[in-house]
Design brief:
227 residues; single chain; mainly alpha; 5% strand; Leucine-rich Repeat Variant; 2 strands
């Protein structure tokens, strides 16, 4: 198992993402997943994020041959976010969203949980670090299955996160609302265009420095494209 873990870590340190995923997908799905989940806590940022992408791809593939096994992976990640688990759940919101972004069936079954994690009357995630992962995840799911979020009123619960004290949370919330094309937040996004706070955004296998303002501006263009 140690050799397997070291092999997968080396793989995740590579690029481009397509090559990384192709290599991970050659491994037995359950063994790969068992190795990838702990890597959501890895100290190297690229390894953590590539583990998120790989978990999405491998779990989606597993769902085609063994749907219940794939559901159990989703449930395991959700359990990690449960207070009773005794853990924190680092990386779980991102991994859940990536799985749902790749596999429509799992998104239909479990998409409501991503919305519940935003809701004070639901399974609210209080820690800003977990909220960052959730906001990233909502944006990721909005890229491929925005209907899953719209039908569950995700925009309503997303809007307050634009006023978060955490820069990454408000920047990723702006990105998600732009991808969902929520017209009602244009005034707030326009104000956020001047926000200089910076962080690193993971998208399509690439880590890029961004500002909250740049994401707010990009969101506005998605909502109201130039003629």
């Amino acid at each position: 198992m140690k050799a397997e873990k070291e092999s997968i870590i080396k793989c995740l340190q590579g690029e481009p993402l397509d090559t990384v995923l192709a290599e991970v997908m050659q491994r037995p799905p359950r063994r790969a997943i068992s190795t990838l989940i702990p890597l959501l806590l890895h100290g190297e940022e690229k390894v953590r994020w590539h583990a998120v992408s790989a978990l999405g791809a491998v779990t989606a593939a597993l769902a085609e041959t063994n749907p219940e096994a794939a559901r159990n992976i989703v449930r395991r990640l959700m359990w990690n976010l449960n207070d009773e688990s005794g853990g924190i759940g680092w990386g779980a919101p991102e991994a859940l969203a990536e799985i749902m972004a790749v596999h429509g069936g799992l998104a239909g079954e479990f998409g409501h949980m991503l919305v519940a994690y935003m809701r004070p009357d639901g399974s609210y995630l209080e820690l800003p670090a977990l909220q960052r992962g959730l906001m990233w995840g909502l944006g990721r799911l909005a890229e491929t299955r925005s209907d899953v979020l719209r039908t569950r009123d995700a925009p309503v619960y997303l809007r307050p996160y634009l006023d978060s004290e955490d820069a990454e949370v408000r920047g990723l919330a702006a990105r998600a609302l732009g991808l969902l094309k929520v017209d009602e937040v244009k005034e707030r996004l326009d104000a956020l265009k001047e926000d200089p706070a910076t962080f690193t955004l993971y998208s399509r296998g690439v880590l890029t420095p961004v500002t909250v303002g740049s994401l707010a501006g990009a969101a506005l263009k998605l909502i109201s494209p130039d003629p």
